[in-house]
Amino acid sequence: MDLDKATDFMATHARTLDRRRFELLTGGGDRDALLAALNAYRNPDGGYGHGLEPDLRSRTSQPGPALHAFEVFAELAPDTAPEAVALCDWLESVTLPDGGVPFGLHVPDPAGCAPFWAGADPETSSLQITAVVAAMAQRVAVHDKAVAAHPWLDRATRYCLDTVRAKEEAGEEPQALELAFALWLADAARDTEVVEMLGRHIPESGLLHVQGGLEDEMMRPLDFAPYPDRPARALFAPDVVAAELRRLDERQQDDGGWRVDFASYSPAAELEWRGYATVGAVAILTREAPI
Predict the structure, then answer these.
(1) What single string gives the DSSP state of each residue in the chain?
(2) Model pLDDT, residue 291
(3) Average pLDDT for consecutive 10-residue bins of the chain (291 residues)?
């Protein structure tokens, strides 16, 4: 990748939050500035909204943006922030009796929101969203003892792993995104039994079409296993991973940024996703070959 061009892309096009994330990732960042950028999306109840999830423009606190907040808390390591455990408190407040969180809560201001966010059922637990939020929280818990000890995290993790096992026993085939995010959680929790169980649903190629997505929208090996030296990475042959890393490197655009392969629901979201995707691509490539 051309890191100079990626830097120029971020300066030209990315939102402040992702510029701060990129700066920290590439060795020139300020953790206080990054936390301040994240807190621009924070609500008094401890949750996050205001478009932190680009396709969910609502001002309201929602489970989806919690994922992105935990991403930042993970990137702040080894520093911790009291906002992380406060987010666990908020998630506990919206957790349903079975231990899961709903895909989304009521959206009173749906302008610019994807229909799957605006129309989510707030009374039904979602394995997909609970797993991805808990997976990132588990990564925060590695360096933040308050998050590690929070009862919400244990409860959400148990709900997800128990649900995965129940679906497996019932012979249900997981949807691609649900499969990927459950795998993230099992990997973060180092539950090798569930990692292997979920891995049986992934083809050797690592390519799985996203139901309901674009015609060519696929989950790929690095979507399932973005971290080296983790249990989930062992699901894929080394040559498959190497080919995916080459592909990711080659997908840098002429302007220095990367694109996502899914639909966006507003012009602002489309551009914001590009900044987010560029941070993600550089993070993966530098984990494999540090700058």
Answers:
(1) --HHHHHHHHHHH--HHHHHHHHHHTT---HHHHHHHHHTTB-TTS-B-TTSSTT---SS--HHHHHHHHHHHHHTTT---HHHHHHHHHHHHH--TTS--BS----S--TT--HHHHT--TTSB-HHHHHHHHHHHHHHHTT-HHHHT-HHHHHHHHHHHHHHHHHHHTTPPPPHHHHHHHHHHHHHTT-HHHHHHHHTTS-TT--EE-TTS-TT-EE-HHHH--STTSGGGGGS-HHHHHHHHHHHHHT--TTS----SS--SSHHHHHHHHHHHHHHHHHHHHHHS--
(2) 58
(3) 97 98 95 98 98 98 98 98 98 98 98 96 98 98 98 98 97 95 97 96 94 86 95 96 97 97 93 98 91 58
Q: How many residues belong to the chain?
A: 291
